[in-house]
Write a structure and sequence with these properties.
By secondary structure, the chain is mainly alpha-helical. The protein has 7 helices and 4 strands, in the order αααααββαββα.
Length: 194
Amino acid sequence: MEPSPDDWFTRHSPARTAHRTVALVNVLTTAAPRPDAVAAALREYGEEDPLDLDAADVAGMRDAALGLREVFAAGSVDEAAGRLNHLLASGCGPVRLTSHGGHTPWHLHLDRHDEAPWAEWFLASSCMTLAVLLWDRQLPPGGVCASSTCENVYVTSTAGTPRRYCSARCATRERVAAHRRAARNPDAGAPGAS
């Protein structure tokens, strides 16, 4: 059964696509990303089987993920925009409309064609989404977890205190570690302590 246009647009919204980018960057920037783990992340965000990823596909996607990670690591909106502009100029094709042969609603792509390699598709769709988020929010589109034991990236939100951690679990782990350090050394924060 064909998905309804509303389902399709929800599945491919900029926010959902940004979260897919985060999931893939986090899987692909591990020491040895496996094709099955990459395929699982793709399926989680709506890509359909067959997903025939091989080691060369994963290696190309990993290169794209490392470039995208630099956008998340940017310290300012200007730096994030500069890094995105570099990726857009060096790795993406011209803007084009596609309906994948009438199987989807018309939408934008930045890869060269509908059968582009996985790495090209991943870089192009991620750059487009991160650029839309930066444009809409006038903030870096994400960040890198501040936990000393985590290297995951995350998408920033528009409201409230700036986010520092990829998950509540990492934030809690850091608060508990800080509390334990303070309990072991209660005089460390006292005036005149050296």
